[in-house]
Design brief:
- The protein is built from 10 helices and 9 strands.
- Helix 2 runs antiparallel to helix 3 and helix 5 packs across helix 6.
- The chain is globular and about 60 Å long.
- Helix content is 45%, strand content 22%.
- It has a 6-stranded antiparallel β-sheet.
- It folds into 2 domains: 141 residues, Regulatory protein AraC (Jelly Rolls); 104 residues, Orthogonal Bundle (Arc Repressor Mutant, subunit A), CATH 1.10.10.
- A hairpin with a 2-residue loop joins strand 3 and strand 4.
- By secondary structure, it is an alpha+beta fold.
């Protein structure tokens, strides 16, 4: 087997505690999750990311992991540079997304993490061997083009995308949005309402309520936990907003839609 990579490091995390800004670096990053569900933003595109998904991100690509609403969240990262042989096989402007149905890739990546945790860089040759095997398997995954498009979108369409990416689980304020548009908060709210026939506050509330419906149907999280996931410190306030938008309480809506 040809040596495709030079291992640089690895990390484990059990949560995403705050909204972070997309970042990039001059080396590859392999993310894999063994428990949980969230989304990965890569060059402005959102990708579903859940248990036994693997996402290989090429160098100099903006990416960030969204906050997770999952109770159990186990995410691992492996960083590496490509050898000359690796550069011939690995994509430069595409991600590779693979779901590991048979557990082979997860086993190899776990060995990489555990070996690194135990001996750091002392067993780098062994780790690089494991990593090359991982990359051979990753080539069976789906390659997706993530080239950045020219930034010529209409400003309010861009701000909608920003809100969709960041407001559901984060705390996006009108002042923050107005600053991005170089407007005062009052001017921004007025122009937003003119274009979309809804205020920015109402739009953010709808994002959160729509996501809460999904969590009510697909998880066993309590209403209090769902409210906290979505940034509400007060469960009662969340329930009132839900009832106002949907017309029934979260618990009644869940009973109706699970039958």
């Amino acid at each position: 087997m040809k040596d495709l990579a030079r291992f640089l490091g690895s990390r484990y995390s059990d949560s995403v505690t705050e909204r972070m800004q997309p970042h990039k670096h001059p080396y590859y990053e392999l993310n894999f999750m063994t428990n949980g569900r969230t989304k990965m933003e890569i060059n402005g595109q959102l990708f579903e990311y859940s248990s036994f998904d693997f996402i290989l991100i090429p160098p100099n690509t903006y990416h960030v992991l969204n906050q997770s609403a999952s109770k159990k969240f186990d995410n691992y990262i492996i960083w590496f540079s490509a050898t000359d042989d690796g550069k011939k096989q690995l994509p430069q402007d595409k991600i590779i997304k693979l779901h590991d149905y048979n557990g082979i890739v997860e086993t190899l990546c776990s060995e990489i993490y555990l070996t690194y945790k135990k001996s750091k860089m002392a067993d780098q040759n062994l780790i690089s061997y494991y990593l090359s095997a991982v990359l051979y398997h990753m080539n069976k995954g789906l390659m997706i083009d993530i080239k950045e498009k020219e930034d010529n979108e209409e400003p309010f369409k861009k701000i909608l995308k920003y809100m969709n990416r960041n407001a559901t689980y984060g705390h996006v304020t009108i002042a923050e949005l107005a600053e991005l548009m170089n407007y005062t908060p009052t001017h921004f709210s007025r122009e937003f309402k003119k274009r979309f026939d809804i205020t920015p506050i109402e739009y953010i509330i709808n994002l959160k309520i729509n996501e809460s419906k999904k969590l009510l149907k697909e998880t066993n999280d309590s209403i209090k936990e769902i409210a906290e996931h979505l940034g509400y410190s007060d469960q009662l306030y969340f329930s009132k907003q839900f009832s106002k938008v949907v017309g029934s309480s979260p618990s009644d809506w869940k009973k109706k839609n699970l039958n």
